[in-house]
Amino acid sequence: MQHPAPDTPSRDRPEQASSGPSPRDVALENIVMMTGLGRYDDVRQLLADFHPADVAELLDQLDEPGVRQRVFRLLPPEAASAVLSLVSPAVRDELVADLSDRELAGLVEELDTDDAADLLETLPEERTPTVLAEMPSELAEEIGDLLDHPSDTAGGIMQTEYVSVPQYATVEQAIGLIRRAHDDVPEVHDVFVVNVERHVTGILPLSYLVLASPDEAVADIMDRPVISVPLEMPQDEVARILQKYDFVSVPVVDGQERLVGRVTIDDVVDVIEEEASKDIYAIAGVESESINLAHDSVLKRVGERFSWVVMTVLLGLVVALVISKVFVATFEKMALLAAFLPVIIATAGAVGLQSSTLVVRAIALGTLSFQRIVSVIAREAATGLALGASCGLITAAASYLINMGTPDILNLSVAVLIGMVISVTAAACVGTVQPIIFYKLNRDPAVAAGPLVTAFNDLLGTTLYLVVATAIQA
Amino acid sequence: MQHPAPDTPSRDRPEQASSGPSPRDVALENIVMMTGLGRYDDVRQLLADFHPADVAELLDQLDEPGVRQRVFRLLPPEAASAVLSLVSPAVRDELVADLSDRELAGLVEELDTDDAADLLETLPEERTPTVLAEMPSELAEEIGDLLDHPSDTAGGIMQTEYVSVPQYATVEQAIGLIRRAHDDVPEVHDVFVVNVERHVTGILPLSYLVLASPDEAVADIMDRPVISVPLEMPQDEVARILQKYDFVSVPVVDGQERLVGRVTIDDVVDVIEEEASKDIYAIAGVESESINLAHDSVLKRVGERFSWVVMTVLLGLVVALVISKVFVATFEKMALLAAFLPVIIATAGAVGLQSSTLVVRAIALGTLSFQRIVSVIAREAATGLALGASCGLITAAASYLINMGTPDILNLSVAVLIGMVISVTAAACVGTVQPIIFYKLNRDPAVAAGPLVTAFNDLLGTTLYLVVATAIQA
User: Fold this and answer.
1) Separation of alpha carbons A261 and A160, rounded Å
2) Cβ distance A94 to A68 under 8 Å?
3) A residues 354-373 lying closer than 8 A (beta carbon) to B
4) Candidate from B18, B212, B241 with C-beta closest to A17
5) Contact yes or no for B222/B208 (Cβ under 8 A)
6) What is the pTM assigned to this prediction?
7) pLDDT at B197
8) Which of A172, B126, B220, B277 is deepest in the core (most CB within 10 A)?
C-alpha cells in the first residue's frame, strides 16, 4: 500500500497547510537556484519531498521554459506523469512538445485511464495515435475507447480502474481481489459486486469489508439495489447524483447494463467547478473557459470574446438606426432627454442581469420548479415592476431637481418615470423568460443570460423611453 | 454496518438512475393520493423504499403544506431528520415551525454534528437554546461549540465525528475502534492516528487497514507527515486543499494543533458549489444566494436586489447631472449624437464585464498569478484596445451610412470612432483592475465585477464620448 498511483497521491508532504508563510516557497526558490547551478542531485532530493500538486504549481510559476524543462526531467516517472496532468494547459503543451512519443507514452502509462485520456485529448490531433502506438496494446485500446466518449459524459470522465467481485465471493476473497488489484486501483472507495453478466448487483463500501468477518458472503452485507449511470449521461447529471446521495463513487454501465467503469467523487468536484465556470463565462460573454490571463495572446483573447461583443454592437446599431430615423426629432425638441438615457439603460440592464442570473443558477442547481413556472415569471415581473417604480420615482425626482426652471421640465420627468418603470419591468421579464426558453429548446440557458439579454434590454429600454417621450411631446 | 446514518445513506433505492421517465414519479404521486385518502400504513410502506434525498425532493414539490406535514410525520425518525436537512429552506422553515422543541431535538440528535449545527443555524434565533436544552448535555455542548465557529470556516463546516487511534495501536485494535465508533461514524474515509497530546501524527486510509495484517503497527503503515487545517481557515481554502491533493477527508486542528474534527469531501462539493453561486450572484448584483424563485415574496426579492440597483441609479444620475449641466449644448447642436450613446455604453459595459469576470474567476480558482499582474493588466488593456478599435470602426462606418447626407456627418463618425475606442479600452482596464484592488483590500472581488463596474463603465463611456464630441464640435 506504499505505492499510491501518481495521481491519487498519499499524504507524504513536509508541511502543515495550516502554517503561515510557507517554508515550501523557500524550498521552491532553492530548487530554481540549484537547477541554475547544475546541482541536479540536490534538486532531485529536494523534489522528492514535494507532492506532485506542489511541483506542478512550481512549474506553472517558473518564468523560464528552459529551467522548467530541466526541473521536469529530473522527476521520477510516477511523479512526472502526475505533474504533467496537474500543470496548467499552456505549461503542459510546452512540456509535452519537448518529449518524444516514446517518453510521453511512458508517462501516460503511469496515469489512471481517465487522466491518461484527458492528457491525450490535449495533444495535437496527429500525435494521439503515434503516442498510443508506443503503449502496450491492451492499455492503448482501453484509453482509445475512453477517447471515443464525449468528454462531458459519464464515459468521458470515468476511469476503467475499479475492483469488482463475483456475488458468490466471501469477504476474504474480496479482500484478496483488492490486494491483487492494488497496484492499478490504489483508491478503491467502493467494491462493485457483479453477476456473470457483469451487471452490478450490489455495492460494498470499504468500511463494510473492514468490519465484516472473513467468511461472510459479500452478497449478505452489500448495499442493494444499485444506482448506476449510463455511459452517455451528461457529466453534470452524474455529479448531481453523487452529490445528492453522498456517494464516493458510482458504477458506469453500457447499453446492456454491464459494468464498464466508475466515476469517483474527486472527478465530481472538478465537474462542478467546470460547470460553474462555464455558466459564469457564458453570463459574461466569453467563449472559452481556458483563457490564461497571464499567458494568452491578445489575439486569442479577442477571438474568444469578439463574437459576443459584435452581437452587442449590432443590437446597439439597431437602436442607433431607430433613434436616427424615428426619434431624432424628439431629441431635437428636448436635448435633455439624452441626459437620462444612460441611467435608464443601465438600470434596466442591471435588473435584467439579476433576473437572468437567478434563473440560470436555479436551472443549474436543479432548484427551478418547472411546474411553477408561471408563478416564477409572475413574481419576477412584479419584482421588476417594484424596482422600476422605485427607481423611476427617484430618477424622475432627480430629473426635476437637476433641471428646475427648464421649460417642459414636467414632460421630461414624466417621460423618465414612465420610461424607467416600463423598461425595468420589461427587462425583468425578458431576463426571466429568455433562459427558460433557451433551456426548453435544449440550448445553454447561461448563454441567454449573457450579453445577449443585456443588449436586448438596452434596445428595449431605449425604445420604450423614447416612445413615451415622443408621445408626451405630441 | 446496516445502520447508515441518515445523512450518509446507503444505496438502498429502488431505481436505476439510468432509466428513463422514472417509476419514482409514479410512486410519489401514489404517496400523495394515499395520504389524501388517509391510508397512512400504505404511505409508510411506500416511503420506506425511498432514499431521504428523494423524499426531500417530493416534499419540496408538494403544493399543500398540510399534505407535506402529514407525509413528513409518517417518516421514521432517522429518515425524518435526514429529510429535514435536505429539503429547501422554505419547506424546512415550515416543517420546523410545526414541530415542538422536544420533537425537533429528537430529530437533530440523529444527524451528524455538522448537519445538526447547520439545521440549528436556520432556526429563529430564540429557538436554538430551547432546542439544545432538550438534548443530551454532552451533545448539546458539542453542537453549541460548532455554532460558535463562523459558518464559512473549517470550524463551521467540520463534523466532530471521526475515528482516531493512538499511534502505538495495531491494525486489529484500530479495526476494533472503528467497529465501536460505527454507530456514530458510519463513513470513516480515513482513520486519524494521534499521540497523547492529540496531535495528528499520521493518516490511515481504510484501504490500508483492509490490506494490512492484524498485528502490524498502525505507525508502520500510516501516511506521514499530515496535512491538517486550522479551525479558522476559510472554507474555500479548505476545499482547495482537499481538491488539490485528492483527499477524501482532512483533520481540523485547534490553536494547539489538537485534533477537533474533520472535513470530508462531500462537504467540499457543497462548498465549491456555494462559492461558485456566491460569485455568480455577486457578479449579477444579488445579495443573497438563497432566493427561491417560486416561493419567495416580491418584497424579499426587491430587498435582496435593491441596493445594487439603487447604486446603478445613483451613478446613472451622476451621468445625467453631468450631461444636463455640461453637455446639453453638445446634443442641442447635434441630436444625432444621442443615437450612438446606447451602443457605446452597451459595448463598453459588455467588454468590462468580460474582463472583470475573467479576473474574478481566475482569483477564485487560484490561477491568477500576482507576480505577473502587470502583464495581465497590460494584455487586457491591449485586448480592450483591439476590441474597441474594431467595434469603433464598425460603428463609425454604420453611423456614416445611416445618416449619410446629414450635415456634420463626418464629425459624428469621428466622435463615435474615438468615443468607442477610448470607452471600451477604459472599460477593459477598469474591469481588470477593480477586482484586483478589491482582492488586495481583502474585499470580495466578485462584488467589484458586478453592477458596480458596469455602472462605472457606463459613466466613463458616456463622459468620454461626449468630451470627444464636444471637442470636435468646438
Assistant:
1) 4
2) yes
3) 354, 356-362, 365, 367-369, 371-372
4) B241
5) yes
6) 0.78
7) 93
8) B277
Contact A358 B16 (CB under 8 A): no
Partners of B279 on chain A (C-beta within 8 Å) are 276, 280
| Furthest C-alpha separation in chain B | 97
A386 touches B at CB < 8 Å: yes
Residue among A146, A335, A132 nearest A252 (CA): A146
Is the pLDDT at B251 greater than 90, yes or no? yes
Interface of B with A in 272-311 (CB under 8 A): 272-273, 276-277, 279-281, 283-286, 291-294, 296-298, 301-302, 305-306, 308-310
Q: Give dist(CA B397, CA B390) in Å, integer.
A: 11
In B, residues 164-223, which contact A (CB 8 Å cutoff)? Answer: 175, 178-179, 182, 186-189, 203, 205-212, 221, 223
DSSP E strand boundaries for A149-199:
164-166, 190-194
- Which one, of A58, A61, A66, lies nearest residue A36 by Cα? A66
Tell me if chain B has a CB within 8 Å of the CB of A429: no
ipTM field: 0.78
Residues of chain B positioned with their CB less than 8 A from the CB of A203:
11
Show the cell assigned to A376.
Answer: 416564477
Q: Characterize the bridge pairing of strands A229-230 and A249-253.
A: parallel
Note the pLDDT tens digit of each residue in B306-335: 888 888 889 889 888 988 888 888 888 888
SS3 of residue B153 by DSSP:
strand
CA angle B358, B359, B361 (to 5 degrees): 65
B342: nearest CB among A225, A305, A458: A458
- Taking the C-alpha atoms of residue B279 and residue A73, their distance in angstroms, rounded to an integer, is 39
Residues contacting residue B66 through CB under 8 Å, at least 6 positions apart: none
Reported confidence tier of residue B12, pLDDT bands at 50, 70, 90: very low
pLDDT band at A6 (very low <50, low <70, confident <90, very high): very low
Residue A354 in contact with residue B353, Cβ under 8 Å?
no
**Residue B285 DSSP SS3:** coil
DSSP at B262: E
Burial B34-43 (b: 16+ CB within 10 A, else e): bbeeeeeeeb
State the cell numbers at A367.
Answer: 432548484
Identify the weakest region by mean pLDDT among A121-125, A247-251, B169-173, B196-200: A121-125
* Residues B186, B166: Cα–Cα separation, whole Å: 20
Measured CA to CA, the distance from residue B332 to residue B319 in angstroms comes to 17
Cβ distance B358 to A284 less than 8 Å, yes or no, reads yes
- Name the residue among B361, B436, B353, B424 with its Cα closest to residue B387: B424
* Set of chain A residues whose Cβ sits within 8 Å of the Cβ of B186: 207
The residues in A 233-252 lying below 8 A from B, measured between CB atoms, are: 233, 241-248
Q: What is the mean pLDDT of residues A207-233?
A: 90
